Amino acid sequence: YYSGLDLAAHYDFGKMIKSKLLNSNVRVAVIASGDLSHRLSKNAPAGYSPKGKKFDKKLIDNLLEKQTNEIIKLKPELIAEAGECGLKSIVILLGILDGMKYEPRLLSYESPFGVGYLTMSFKL
Question: Is 87 part of a structural domain of the chain?
């Protein structure tokens, strides 16, 4: 469970984590876990909303294009309508990646149960 703070606060939290990691001599892998929309089909756990697919596409496209500001500015109504549970962990990861050179790579996206499952890597 994440705080009730907005996406910008979660991004800043990621930047704080990055600061601590950079001051450490330990190798670290960061994993952001959570689902995208839970509303992609009529049999989805949260029921169907056409905005679920729109949310997932917009998020994936922005991740691939490294458009972090567009992700942070996603409208709360779209986020709520998508019924997601992974956005804030992704935004924390983006805060950790802030200012670093990385290459996003889409490994898979599927929605067999009406829930968007995204797997990406961010190579430094």
Answer: yes
Residue 2 lies in a domain: no
Is residue 1 one of the residues assigned to a domain?
A: no
Is the whole-model pTM more than 0.70? Answer: yes
Task: Supply the range of the domain harboring residue 83.
Answer: 7-123
The enclosing domain of 59 has a CATH number of 3.40.830.10
CA distance 84 to 43: 16
Contact 118, 53 (CB under 8 A): no
Kindly state the percentage of the chain with pLDDT values over 90: 97
In a domain, 63, yes or no: yes
pLDDT of residue 3: 87
What pLDDT, in 10s, does the model give residues 64-83?
A: 999 999 999 999 999 999 99
Q: What is the pLDDT of residue 1?
A: 57
Whole-angstrom distance, CA of residue 117 vs CA of residue 109: 6
- Count: domains in the chain: 1
Q: What is the 3-state secondary structure (H, E, C) of 33-86?
A: CCCCCCCCCCCCCCCCCHHHHHHHHHHHHHHHCCCHHHHHCCCHHHHHHHCCCC
